[in-house]
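Researcher: Last one for today. Full complex below.
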Amino acid sequence: MKATVAELAARIGGTVVGDAAQSVTGFAGLSEANAGDISFLANPKYAPLLVSTKATAVLVNAAQTDALVTQIVVKSADFAFAMLMSVYGPQPVPPPAGIHPSAVIGERVQFGADVAIGPFVVIGDGAVIGARTVLYPQVVIGAEATLGDDNVLYPHVTVRERCVLGHRVILQPGAVIGSDGFGYATVEGVHHKIPQVGTVVIEDDVEIGANTAIDRARLAATRIGRGAKLDNLVQIAHNVEVGAGGLIAAQAGIAGSTKLGKFVTLAGQCGISGHLTIGDQVVITGQAGVSKDFGARAVVRGSPAMEFKTAQRNEIAVRRLPETQATVKELRARVAELERKLDALLAEKQAEKSAARPAGA
Amino acid sequence: MKATVAELAARIGGTVVGDAAQSVTGFAGLSEANAGDISFLANPKYAPLLVSTKATAVLVNAAQTDALVTQIVVKSADFAFAMLMSVYGPQPVPPPAGIHPSAVIGERVQFGADVAIGPFVVIGDGAVIGARTVLYPQVVIGAEATLGDDNVLYPHVTVRERCVLGHRVILQPGAVIGSDGFGYATVEGVHHKIPQVGTVVIEDDVEIGANTAIDRARLAATRIGRGAKLDNLVQIAHNVEVGAGGLIAAQAGIAGSTKLGKFVTLAGQCGISGHLTIGDQVVITGQAGVSKDFGARAVVRGSPAMEFKTAQRNEIAVRRLPETQATVKELRARVAELERKLDALLAEKQAEKSAARPAGA
Amino acid sequence: MKATVAELAARIGGTVVGDAAQSVTGFAGLSEANAGDISFLANPKYAPLLVSTKATAVLVNAAQTDALVTQIVVKSADFAFAMLMSVYGPQPVPPPAGIHPSAVIGERVQFGADVAIGPFVVIGDGAVIGARTVLYPQVVIGAEATLGDDNVLYPHVTVRERCVLGHRVILQPGAVIGSDGFGYATVEGVHHKIPQVGTVVIEDDVEIGANTAIDRARLAATRIGRGAKLDNLVQIAHNVEVGAGGLIAAQAGIAGSTKLGKFVTLAGQCGISGHLTIGDQVVITGQAGVSKDFGARAVVRGSPAMEFKTAQRNEIAVRRLPETQATVKELRARVAELERKLDALLAEKQAEKSAARPAGA
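Model: Here's the assembly. Have a good evening.
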């Protein structure tokens, strides 16, 4: 990479505050940057680094007056940095275009233009592979599966039979699409496997993380909506539906037949029980355990999960609980003391009354 | 598929309530069904759909009087539907029978009759592959491993050296059998690897989910009992024993040397510490964290896990805690007020007594 | 194996208590051992087995006076047993030395001496494979990745482009090194992928479990420090740093940019939020959810995680909470009764005063 600050700013529609003529030769985070690097400030937690960074220029969402470094002011520093990197940065190394001679291609497989099929890829009968789609080494595509255009499937991905992927889908290494759902009918102590003959439908612009597993539906389809992004080691059970734009962090899990609305966010290691409905834009925090429906825009926390404010109020209450219990203990003693004193007083009064009453009354 | 309601009912021993002469051509869930489909009602939550479904017939556990659709009454609608699907439904597409020429087969490997070995499968020296067992593309079987009859191993499964699988075992894509247990002896700040030279024994009729990992024992064997079913992304540490008929949902984990009795159920994302004993038919709920033994038929919940009723009682208590703390605060004020009034009264009384006493007494 | 107790003791610097002339022919746990086996006692929970074991000799940390079996006293029974097993025990079966003819090797790949490259391995252009390193079948090494000496990569491991592994690194089956970090810039409802062009650096003597995923950095490197050991199904997000000697149990997860000090221990299923700093020798217990920094040597528990003693105190308080609430209810009644009695008394007193006062006063 070799560009001036001015050229970079022009490409992302940014405004330069500082010396626009400097040369930029690399990308780096604020702490690691050296002279020649461009960096970015997205998380305000790191704002103090604007004073100490050695970067030549920094993308910012708003100009910082105390910064010593040249700034490029943009709407989203994160996004602008990503745009510059996708143009000027290093690129992953796909298999060479064309079909590697070692690949095993079934019958009636259809290829779009310019596919890149790596060594030891196996594609089942009747599968469809869209234009410019890249299959890294050892990807396995089942019979009659359909992949759209511009997909990237990294090594050791499995897409089982009849699953359907849209366009621009990215599957990180080891992701499994279309494994059998976990369904058994238990009769007299024997778990009989329930055939899982549905599929998985992954819509356009979805990314799936490493070693994530998405089960095929019992019937119909498990569905991952357009633009959703799933992190590593996520579990999606049979017949789940993830709405468009969902963000699902690592090690989260969704049990069977649960439906998520649009733009739902699941933080890491949270879990959602089966047969639930979660509204649009719901946010489920880390390790939360959701066992009931939540409506649109709810923010939920805890296990069992409840509205964020309620959960937080309860957590604060628990932190004060030992003190509360000490107070209760103290109050019990004080109440007993009050009872003792009052009873003595009443007894004394009673005695006085008896004494004041004429004898024999 | 093309059968009458009467034919289907006969095959599963069901009783028709409605028009037995209708033709059935497909399978579907109650909501998605169209005319010609057969469906089922297993979860009573969905009973209202019996009125609105477009299915031609529905399998039910008990006839619903208000249903508008033809019903087939059976003992287990789930199981009966599964039976019909396994006969009439679509089937997965195994590799063609025989050994694909690209497979790499070690020395002294024994094959039963009619195996199907897919492309790029690797089988180590001295392994045994039972009759009719199917190895999908890119399965790796280690040296001296033994697989029984009628197994199905999906793509990218690894079975490491010397592990033993019974009959009718199913391994979903990416499952790992026989990885080294997590064992180190730490001496002067260095973690020395403890050799893990035991194996994994998987008994008959077990199914293991996608990307689940089962570690080999340090010595002897990690064991998965007959008929147990494990979901995706489950962790089974070295020397664990899962009893017969166990059901382990996704992302659950069991630490080293823990023994589960028969027909234990682990819900999603629960964890069990090492060196514990869990009795027969114990149920561990979602995200529970078990750190002590539980006897037969216990139902446990929470992290740390305790008996379900105790855990639930505590959860309810916590939900009422903010109110309890408000009450305690109020009581403290009322007790202080009582103390003030009573002290005043006693002081007044004391004063009266003093006044009533003759001067100089 | 065939050795006397004396020979084994000599090799590990142990002291024999009992008959040193006996022959040892195998290894086993205390419960499973038969005559001829050597066993070990590491976890004091199993000390009673020293009386009942059929082993010929047992490694112990301190001689047990009531043991009936020959003992070999060593500093660490665990470590000594491991040493004996690595010398006398069964060994895993690596692919034969040399490069299997089916492997696909890119351009400019450098091999050290005596590598063992299994069937269907794929190595990208410009990669470096150190001396004596073993790649089991179907390992994929990306372009320009560097592996040190004496590494062992089990089947279906993926190491993506440009990642760097030190010496003596072990990767269990299905581990993924260098998947893209989970990073998106959301602009007007669209999640734009942020290029993840950093790498993963794994230092010497690290072991990584089955199906564990370690994401490459956005820039710079995700780093696993020397001698750290990671169990199965662990999630390491982009730009995380695990310090030297870390121990990370199964299904634990660390979110982006968090830094762990040296010798940090993470128990199973715990999670750490992003952008945190965790000090040296911190211990995080099972299922804990860490959402703030902790200094050196902290032991933390719970979700949200807090100091162990505080968390435990709160847990005990919650277990007593239903009883506390009963006490509060009882106190409220007693306070009301006190108020009633005292008010009555005061009213009576007031009445007496009024009566005692002259009429019309």
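The two ends of chain B are 114 Å apart (CA to CA). Chain B touches chain A through 71 residues (CB under 8 Å).
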